[in-house]
Amino acid sequence: MLYDRYGRLAFTLALRVLGDAGAAEDVVQEAFLAVWRRAASYRPERGSLRTWVCSIVHHRAIDRLRGRSGRARLDLSLDKAPPEVALSDTWETVAADLEREHIRRALAELPDEQRRTIELAYYAGYSQSEISSLMKVPLGTVKGRTRMALRRLRSTLERQGVEWSVT
Description:
Layout: H1 2-18, H2 21-37, H3 49-67, H4 90-108, H5 112-123, H6 128-135, H7 139-159
Helix pairs in contact: 1-2, 1-3, 2-3, 4-7, 5-7, 6-7
């Protein structure tokens, strides 16, 4: 039932991070096995079930990306991200579209350096050390930008009434 509800969303997220459908399928399978094994670790007070599942998928996809040696990564901006695979439930689709639009608007309000840092970390899968090298700034600056950006995003999204959780 959980896979039926979130499987397509999980695949879309993994595909967006990895840019490879086969690898995305593998990551989703691994993630749902992890969800099954770690079901007792889910804490509703830390976020929705959807957020928890997506977090596991995202972390698995990032782990897969970092495991690649010498393969190029895609640097995706939110505007150029591939379209999502259609979700089975119309209401989920509408909710996801609204959430995505809230996040895009909140990201657009960030200073360029903070927005770019978040995009590199969450959408392109770079580590903070790699972002430091790419942006030619100290690691502490990347960490500070990330922390400030996440605080600002949380504040903006909470003002808009959007559920927010970063794990």
